[in-house]
Amino acid sequence: MPVQTCPPELLACPRCDKSPLARRDQRLHCNACKTVFPAVGGIPWLFAEPDASLGEWRNRLHFALQQYAHVVRKIEHELSSEDLGDLTRDRLEAQKNAASDHRERLRTLLAPIDLQSTPASYESYLALRTRLPPDQGLSTYYSNVHRDWAWGDEENDASLKQIRAVLNDEDALGETLVFGAGACRLAYDVHMQLKSDRTVATDFNPLLLLIAESVCNGKQLDMYEFPIAPKSIEEYAVLRELSAPAEVTDGFHLVLADALRPPFPAKSFDTVITPWLIDIISEDLPVFAARINSLLKPGGRWINFGSLAFDHPDKARCYSPQETLSIVQETGFEPPRTREDVIPYMCSPASRHGRWENVFTFVTGKTADCKTPARHRALPDWIVTGKEPVPLTQSFQTQAMSTQIYSFIMSLIDGKRSIKDMARLFEQQKLMTRAEAEPAIRNFLTRMYDDSQRQSAF
């Protein structure tokens, strides 16, 4: 059976939490708050603000296409040099052709999100970056696609082994939710090999789920891999065949959604799996653990898998494994059963870059309900509604002063003034002394220069 449309009774409105949703005209409708949720390539698009989030992804995808076109133009400019060696010229030609071809493959694959709706220039997208999670873009986990569906059998098998290791042989997964499923190989393996009754795989990235939808339905996709550290001149861009071992069986569903506003009714699942997720999301672990609790049926099971590499500006939120297990128990779960193993991670056969990761896996059963957290709000009301005063925080005041200084520096760049000339003007304007201004200007221009030499992420 192909990937199936998720039954409405499994879904709740991520905006008001009411369920079930109604299906009409290929879209899902919330009868309570009247929000309409589209489908993208047949996959439900269940974000709390469906139109706004779809617009953000359209912008990001347009930016990616603009970026690939920019790469092609940049390589063409480099190829115009007469100083290139023959091997370098051959490599650049191959990279240019791959970038151009990959751009068209992306355009075709992502047609379901209506790419023609918001055209803009490359420079506009640099200036108007969209946010979702600001560190998670279209291509953030694109390399995982090739690990999942091309060359990653050793890692994929090792990942599933971690799940098996913390389960008892007689454990049945039942109704299973995989949060942050990415390109969905682990969710696929759980469904196919551990025989869950029904598996719902969710992620917020449409590129990853559209690829998963194709390969799980038995289709073959040919997509380029761009290794981080190519082993040879032929491996700067490698056209890979993406395919699943077999077409997925009945009961496998994909949902595009935000894990912090999960579109599912309370107490819907027997098992929730969070692979490589709890240490990278923006929500504090005690709050997210309570969210997991609310989605589990009485006696349900939570399985977590990953490295536990918490990296948050607040050091108090960079939890150790011991703190993590304590937090889990404080949110209505029994003492977790754990396992640690070293497994391969992103060891592409075309790249010199790869590593071994010490992964921390735990399984725990729900013993009690806990207070359901309030709906996650990514931004404060003074940004969202625009009706409340913008708070004059210390960081805003500091940033305002910095912005004024940086703007003044940029206004002085005319192709004629030197750094020393600019420093004299700073002193004349009584912004700072010449001795203070010169290194400040030099540092700022150094950062600007370095940024101009690097490609923007997309």
How far the N terminus sits from the C terminus, by CA atoms, comes to: 34 Å
Radius of gyration: 25 Å
Tally of structural domains? 3
Secondary structure class reads alpha/beta
CATH H-level homologous superfamily name of the largest domain: Vaccinia Virus protein VP39
Strand order of the largest sheet: 4-5-10-7-6-11-12-14-13
Strand content: 15-25%
Mean pLDDT: 89
Order of helices and strands: EEEEEHHHHHEHEHEEEEHEHEEHHHH
User: The biggest beta sheet, please?
Assistant: 9 strands, mixed
The CATH class assignment of the largest domain is: Alpha Beta
Number of strands: 14
Enter the CATH topology name of the largest domain.
Rossmann fold
Number of distinct helices:
13
CATH architecture annotation name of the largest domain: 3-Layer(aba) Sandwich
Net shape:
globular
Q: Which ranges are low-confidence, i.e. pLDDT below 50, for 5 or more consecutive residues?
A: 124-131
